[in-house]
Design goal:
45% of the residues lie in helices and 23% in strands. By secondary structure, the chain is α+β, with helices and mostly antiparallel strands. It has one domain: 3-Layer(aba) Sandwich (Aminopeptidase). It has a 7-stranded mixed sheet, with helices on both faces. The protein binds coenzyme A.
Length: 198
């Protein structure tokens, strides 16, 4: 696969595809509990905000995979709350009522309550590849393109949180030069590992 040909910068038109893939392929993640309309709004903000970006592979009507990255996660969340807060909040009300604890953990993590002081500010927020496109290097190409883009922005390091037992993700990040730095429990009972590059 030619990485340069296949990975492209995501646009607002890709936000729905990213939100759908997030919902189907990262169903255990905290943000899914807030609903697909919330995720569409969040990925639209990732595209619009200059401190974050979306990279995708495939056609916008049915993307094969994506990676979303923030130079500083807290800045993205603050921008999101400032620009989209009211509408996103309303969209998420039923989910907030269903899962207040998970939502709290998300906000705590995203706004700096956890001790991340020794870790890079930049963060890979999410990576997902459609099941039909897996095992062909799409995930690895997306992560490599993400670190390339960070380098082009003058950002030399990035972190990512993933489930400790997510073997495909651990291999994908390992191949891209990430190594484990800390373990955490973003969700009660689920061990998460914080990896960092380089
Ligand atoms: C993790 C994920 C993005 C990988 O996408 P992918 O395009 O299949 O990944 P690649 O083809 O680039 O393969 C990456 C590595 O995972 C390995 N891998 C792929 N599927 C695997 C599986 N089922 N079990 C074990 N390893 C697997 C590959 O062999 C490769 O390792 P290698 O380079 O040592 O050979 C994809 O499985 C996915 O979307 N999972 C659900 C969402 C998720 O967990 N995201 C990551 C957390 S944010």
């Amino acid at each position: 696969m030619s990485r340069a040909d296949a990975v492209r910068t995501g646009t607002e038109a890709d936000a729905v595809g990213a939100a759908r893939l997030h919902t189907s392929e990262l169903p255990e993640g905290f943000l899914v509990t807030l609903g697909t309309p919330f995720l569409v709004r969040l990925y639209t903000r990732v595209v619009r905000f200059r401190g974050s970006f979306l990279l995708v592979m495939g056609d916008e009507s049915d993307i094969d995979g994506f990676v979303a990255v923030a130079e500083r996660t807290g800045d993205l969340y603050r921008e999101f709350l400032r620009r989209d807060g009211v509408r996103a909040g309303l969209a998420a009300v039923p989910a907030l009522a269903r899962a207040p604890r998970r939502t709290w953990e998300t906000l705590r993590y995203g706004t700096g309550g956890a001790d991340l002081s020794d870790l890079p500010d930049a963060e890979i927020l999410s990576v997902a590849v459609a099941p039909r496109a897996r095992g062909r290097g799409v995930g690895r190409a997306l992560v490599a393109a993400a670190t390339d883009e960070l380098g082009a922005r003058g950002v030399g390091a990035v972190r990512v949180v993933t489930a400790a037992d997510n073997e495909p993700a651990r291999r994908m990040y390992g191949a891209a030069g990430f190594s484990p730095r800390a373990t955490t429990e973003v969700h009660a009972g689920v061990e998460q590992v914080v990896l960092a590059w380089p």
